[in-house]
Write a structure and sequence with these properties.
The complex is a heterodimer of chains A (about 150) and B (about 525). Chain A has about 150 residues and is of the alpha+beta class. Helix content of chain A is about 45%, strand content about 15%. The N and C termini of chain A lie far apart (about 35 Å). The model of chain A has no long low-confidence stretch (mean pLDDT about 95). Chain B has a five-stranded mixed sheet, covered by helices on one side. In chain B, helix 6 crosses helix 13, helix 7 packs across helix 10 and helix 17 packs antiparallel against helix 19. The N terminus of chain B is likely disordered. Classes of the chains: A alpha+beta (about 150), B alpha/beta (about 525). The structure holds flavin mononucleotide (FMN), iron/sulfur cluster (SF4) and FE2/S2 (inorganic) cluster.
Amino acid sequence: MTREATIRELANGLADWDGPLLPILHAVQQEFGFLPPETTATVADVLNLSLADVHGVITFYDYFRTKPPGRQQIRVCRSEACQALGSERLAEHIQARLNIGFHQTTPDGRFSLEPVYCLGNCACSPAIMIDSDVHGRMTPERFDALVD
Amino acid sequence: MPSSISPVCIYVPSDTGARSLGADAVAAALAALVGRLGIDGEIRRNGTRGLYWLEPLVEIGTGSARVAYGPVTPKDVAGLLNPDGSANRKHPRCLGNVDDLEALRLQNRLTFERLGVTRPGSLSDYRAHGGYVGLQNALALSPQDIVEAVTQSGLRGRGGAAFPTGVKWRTVLEAQGRQKYVVCNADEGDSGTFADRLVMECDPFALLEGMTIAGIATGATKGFVYIRAEYPQSIANVAEAIDTATDAGLLGDDILGSAHSFRVEVREGAGAYICGEETSLLESLEGKRGTVRFRPPLPAVKGLFGQPTVVNNVISLATVPIVLREGAEHYRDCGVGRSRGTLTIQLGGNVARGGLYEMDFGISLREVLYDLGGGTASGRPIRAVQAGGPLGALIPPKHFDTPLDYEAMQAIGGMVGHGGLVVFDDTVDLGALARFSLEFCAIESCGKCTPCRIGAVRGTEVIDRIRAGVDPDANRALLNDLCDTMIEGSLCGLGGMAPLPVKSVLTHFPEEL
Ligand SMILES: Cc1cc2nc3c(=O)[nH]c(=O)nc-3n(C[C@H](O)[C@H](O)[C@H](O)COP(=O)(O)O)c2cc1C
Ligand code: SF4
Ligand code: FES
């Protein structure tokens, strides 16, 4: 099946939900890891929306990506409770260690790095998330062990 | 049910927080130990007690008592059980019976009565601990009487705005519409807060029961839980609880044999802080960009898809079952002034004993920070506390005798908000924190109004100039003006409150900015 056909099938499957656009975009991103270029036109067609409507939604939400992420996604909490326990130093270490900045992916495609504004783990700061796993009381040493 | 008669029950928390500290590895080590000893034992993944300095907190239960150990590492596991499978009370990590822990005895757990006691996916645990009695009681009442009970309880919205929940419900009950909705705001975007996550991960049926009661009270037959994307385990646990409740006849048609219908669906957010603001959330649920709506109309009159809609925070909704079970007075009799019942305090940041403290309103900041929290984790003096999330003021020690009460906090320029308290020691750079609040506002602004969209960016630039020593007095005056413009000219609380941390630093910590 082509990518476009897969997207169409996912969109058709959810089209009768109340407010189907975000659920469809989540489903497409779940399938491909990002929103492929065909997404906008295909979803707009299925839902009978304008391209601008769909594009506008995709660009509004940080969580939707239009480029493939690294194989592992690392999110570092930059909010206050984590700042109170040194998350800025941790963030510097992580960027130096991976040799990339926030919103970037390592050239070998292993890791991408994103900021996140609170993981709800503020009593176990600093917190990071690798894929869907949260890690609390993170230190530079523990981080190195996790990505080695 | 062989599990309930099994001689050894070992409880290991399953929430994101405990797992972030290694609870899964501890559970695996315990399972291996039980196998090695050849005893009749079961590992139960309960919710957390919310005492995070003790996590992973293992409990070994025989009969009704549970012996607590914490924090436990996989290396500690071998010594927790005696060879006959009984709890080794001589282990250095042993904390005694869990119910005797001071940090729990000092609390008044109402909303969180089951936190850490039950397994999140177990409907039978939920029902064995008071669950669904509130709904049963509600079904015997008229919608007006349910609304009245919630009003009488004094419950105010725990999402931040503290609007009386019963009053909101009455508006929806009296509004006309072809399809009313109950929307649970589970966006929990405020940094320093995690109480919503605890309900969803550890006691999701309480939320569903509260939403169902809200539906019956207002005539809504459909509900949505809008959960932030950063909370995958909440999304999974709530979705599973919805399936379980539906199979048991607690959601769907003819609920508990009544003529009422109520269905719930989960919707996942997509990383936008502003979608915690209720009208932006409704836009997002409708499949649009999360921009804030002008009011009126209120969501209670014209909300989701233009229909009358209850929008309530997770904690507000999860508190409703106990109000309907124990009666409005039971809840209202706790607290002070116009802040009735309990506040689910989330204590985090640089604090020795961080976690969830459900306390009657009226406890002072000082009591929370020192008596409960034990001061900073670093052992240094507390320099400031941020109350009520990223838009809340930084509060100096001279105000620590303020009671946690909506009106009293407001009187010192602070806010209770969603009940988060973030502690900073004396190494904190408060100027950087002030800058961060505007930077955060610039990143998360929905873009609808200029003071917020542009003002926040300008504000960070002005702070940079002050911090670089460029014409500091003139720039401080400029910053003050800019903050006032944002406060007065913004449509919603993001632009309207992000300057508050800045102003609090200018007022209370002038040497820092
Ligand atoms: C910028 C902004 C962000 C908000 N974020 C949240 C949130 O994450 N969760 C929440 O419950 N309420 C949030 N609120 C408050 C909601 O707009 C609304 O008052 C609340 O959901 C109503 O429910 P309650 O009465 O039960 O508190 C936010 C408000 C503003 C202005
Ligand atoms: S204050 Fe900011 S977030 Fe709120 S409506 Fe205006 S632009 Fe949007
Ligand atoms: S502030 Fe970092 S997890 Fe909440």
